[in-house]
Design brief:
The chain is of the alpha/beta class. Helix content is 46%, strand content 18%. A five-stranded mixed β-sheet has the order 1-2-5-6-7, sandwiched between helices. The model has no long low-confidence stretch (mean pLDDT 93).
């Protein structure tokens, strides 16, 4: 029961497929469910496109706007099975403030899970979504047996395109997020 599980929570982790986010938000929006001062973090990758408004939104920004919670974004090399098996993993967390960076670093950091917080929620969110396009292109290069130089060029160009896209739609993002 989401309402019961969330009552009194001060930290909420959103890790659901994006299509299930609206009913989760609806449930959490009920009076008395969320604790004042609670913080959220999203592991949901992707963007939502609002065709009527000609705008795009990251999932942390949707959570923040609809629930009134400061929402951070978790991204990086952290495949769930490898985290569970305690293989070395790392992540970057984009946070709305340095205080949130310190909070989430303390919550998630372990000997085998390195956490680095930065104050760029949109940049981390979009990096997590757009990297998959670059990964597909790199896979195509491998499949076509085009060699390491071509793969490196595709990845470099892909990172530059990710950065340009993010800065076009979220100009407050930091170019350094991509390096």
């Amino acid at each position: 029961n989401l309402t019961f599980a969330s009552q009194g929570a001060t930290l909420i982790v959103f890790c659901v497929p994006h299509q299930f986010l609206p009913p989760v938000i609806k449930e959490l929006s009920k009076p008395g469910v969320l604790t004042k001062g609670a913080r959220a973090i999203s592991a949901i990758k992707g963007i939502e496109v609002d065709l009527k408004a000609h705008d795009i939104h990251t999932y942390p920004s949707i959570i923040e706007r609809k629930l009134g919670l400061p929402c951070s974004a978790l991204g990086g090399a952290n495949i769930a099975l490898e985290v569970a098996n305690e293989e070395f993993c790392e992540t970057t967390i984009g946070c709305p403030s340095p205080e949130d960076c310190a909070l989430w670093e303390a919550v998630f950091s372990t000997k085998m899970f390195r956490v680095h917080g930065i104050t760029d929620v949109a940049g981390v969110s979009l990096s997590g979504a757009l990297k998959n396009v670059v990964a597909l292109a790199a896979g195509f290069v491998d499949g076509l047996d085009m060699g390491g130089n071509t793969k490196s060029a595709v990845i470099r160009a892909g990172l530059l395109e990710m950065q340009a896209f993010t800065l076009e739609f979220f100009p407050s993002s930091s170019p350094e997020t991509f390096s």
